[in-house]
Write a structure and sequence with these properties.
single chain; 337 residues; alpha+beta; Arc Repressor Mutant, subunit A; SH3 type barrels; 4 domains
Length: 337
């Protein structure tokens, strides 16, 4: 028998033993055939019956022959702990590994390495299984430039997680965005947030009630303290995100009004900026009205659209965008001199 056929047979029989219940009335050969087919092993009922007969001579499997159809089960108290994973789990973990590799630092995935390895081996050993080919047909591609995740100092994630789980205050050295030097801070840890390739600790600084997002890659060191952390009254991660905390929205919500191109209008109709978004088509393009969070991410998005959007309100945001565009224009002009 070719090696590939042997591996396929072994994988099928291993999977079937995981499907056999621990007690009567058990599962019939027909039930097991259907379950195997669902897992990607297309075999006949007769093949399943032969497998059961062969395996029952080695393992404590019993046939419940009290009445037809006969069901198969493990002998009382003798069910084996069959390690491994089914094909669906292997594919799901394979796809998850691809997504996580592009989104999070390696420190987040270290605990899953063994499961990822098992998933790869499972798919590699079943080349003839049509479901195993699914991994060749699906890919995840993040939108925009493929940024690499920032480097998090080893040990920091574990210390942050321990502080969160145990409800202990954290002492740390943190370098804020745009700063050259770090400063020592004491934090009440509240939650962890993954945003694109960056990971953030949501925490309230000692003596302050307002939670902020601290990028894990900007911590130089972190240690959990014996003192108990305090949670601001009414804090929940969902409420924090609903109020724009995940978008670094210092200014709260605003009503954005703008003129947009027809192409951008079509995109925004497919993926709206907000639940109350309104787009009206006119002679000179389209008008956009939407309630959004006033954040640097909003400004980043507006500038990334180029001539496809012109902000009209709020006046302060329009003025800021105009100033940024003038700075960009001057930068391009000076670069050509």
């Amino acid at each position: 028998m070719p090696c590939a056929d042997k591996e396929s047979t072994l994988a099928r029989q291993w999977e079937m033993m995981r499907l056999i219940p621990p007690r009567p009335p058990g599962r019939t050969a027909g039930d097991l055939r259907a379950a195997l087919a669902e897992a990607g092993h297309a075999v006949t009922k007769r093949t399943v019956e032969r497998d059961l007969a062969d395996l029952s001579g080695i393992f404590p499997l019993r046939c419940n022959a009290v009445s037809k159809p006969y069901g198969w089960h493990w002998e009382a108290g003798a069910r084996l702990d069959i390690p491994g994973m089914d094909l669906t789990e292997a594919f799901s973990l394979g796809l998850l590994e691809e997504v996580l590799r592009s989104l999070v630092p390696d420190s987040f995935t270290q605990g899953l390495e063994q499961r990822f390895r098992l998933a790869r081996e499972k798919l590699a050993h079943l080349p003839g299984n049509p479901k195993a080919r699914w991994s060749e047909l699906v890919r995840y591609q993040p939108p925009g430039p493929a940024f690499l995740p920032p480097t998090v100092v080893p040990g920091i994630l574990r210390e942050v997680q321990d502080g969160l789980l145990q409800g202990r205050r954290l002492r740390a050295s943190y370098r804020a965005a745009g700063k050259d030097e770090a400063r020592e801070v004491e934090l009440h840890p509240l939650a962890l947030l993954q945003q694109g390739v960056r990971s953030y600790l949501i925490a309230a600084a000692l003596g302050r009630d307002k939670p902020l997002a601290y990028a894990l890659h900007r911590f130089e060191w972190v240690e959990a303290m014996p003192e108990q952390a305090k949670r601001p009254a009414g804090f929940t991660l969902d409420r924090f995100l609903q109020r724009g905390g995940g978008q670094f929205a210092e200014g709260g919500a605003i009503v954005l009004k703008a003129r947009v191109s027809e192409e951008l209008a079509r995109l925004l109709e497919e993926t709206p900026l907000s639940g109350d978004q309104r787009i009206a088509k006119g002679k000179n393009g389209c008008s956009l009205v939407a309630t959004v969070f006033d954040s640097w991410q909003l400004r980043f998005w507006i500038l990334s659209q180029g001539a496809a959007i012109t902000v009209t309100q709020p006046a302060s945001l329009r003025k800021e965008i105009v100033e940024r565009i003038e700075e960009m224009r001057e930068g391009y002009r000076s670069g050509l001199r």
